[in-house]
Amino acid sequence: MKRKTQIVFIILLGLFLNVTAQSNNNTELEVLVERAKKAGLDNDRIIKFLDLIKQKEAALLEIKNSSKDESIYGILESPMQKTNTEVKMEFAKNLANLISKEEYLSILEEEIKQAATKEATKEMNNVLKAHELTDDQKKKVYALIAHYYLNQSVTKAYYLYDKKLKEQKLSALRFYFEKNYKKLMESFGIELGISKKVDTNTFQY
After folding, report:
1. Taking a C-beta distance cutoff of 8 angstroms, is the pair 196, 118 a contact?
2. SS3 90
3. Is 94 in contact with 129 (CB distance < 8 Å)?
4. Any residues with CB less than 8 A from the CB of 81 and at least 6 apart, and which?
5. For this UniProt entry, which residues form the secretion signal (predicted)?
6. Residue 35 has pLDDT above 90, yes or no
7. C-alpha angle with apex 202: 201 to 203, nearest 5 degrees?
8. Is residue 121 a contact partner of residue 57, using CB atoms and an 8 Å limit?
């Protein structure tokens, strides 16, 4: 029974993580089980976690099925019917009440790092276009940028349920990142000049 419970957990966790966990490879399944354990989820929270996932999947399926039954004129849609976005936001809120951001990152770290690495690489290329750095300096700058984008990615996902809170968290991350970036570049003898207004996706190189 314990083994069956683990397999069910793996399958549902795979849906949640958006990873290809459909393989029958026991090693891959064990890796996912270890992720949950390392994240600190005990049996009780794993059960609750699974329940949240099942509720979300059931709600999304209900929306999909109900859309097929709507009138051709689209006037019979129930005002009580939740949208996909509302379901996902509700799931994110309930999940945040169950696990911490650190636990969330622990489970999703591999996938989040993949997305964050792409953004960090783009930013690093822009830095290198603006400044000539030594190999050691490149490593330090990239480490700072990669750390920022990792935190940015997990923050966007974890606080999906509250736009205002999410934006506050992201603003704080960017403020400290730009402050540390400027301090690091100045330690290399590189002056960035007078700060200027930047958009939400770039910083002053």
Report:
1. no
2. helix
3. no
4. 63, 66
5. 1-21
6. no
7. 140
8. no
- As a whole number of angstroms, the distance between CA 170 and CA 188 comes to 27
Structure tokens at 125: 């290329």
**Candidate ranges 11-25, 54-68, 116-130, 186-200; pick with highest mean pLDDT:** 116-130
Q: Which two tokens stand for residue 28?
A: 């891959």
Instruction: Work out the mean pLDDT of the chain and round it to a whole number.
Output: 79
Among residues 158, 56, 146, the alpha carbon closest in space to that of 98 is found at 158
Six-digit token string for 77: 């849609």
Question: For residues 110 and 128, what is the distance between their CA atoms, to the nearest angstrom?
Answer: 26
Cα angle value 66/71/77 (rounded, 5°): 50
- Tens of pLDDT, residues 62-97: 888 876 655 444 555 555 678 888 999 999 999 999
Domains of the chain, by residue range, sit at 2-98, 101-187
Distance CA 105, CA 159 (A): 12
Q: What is the pLDDT of residue 25?
A: 46
Do the Cβ atoms of 117 and 50 come closer than 8 Å? Answer: no
78: region left, alpha or beta (phi > 0 left; psi from -120 to 50 alpha) = beta
Task: Output 67 or 116, whichever has higher pLDDT.
Answer: 116
Local structure of 40: helix, strand or coil: coil
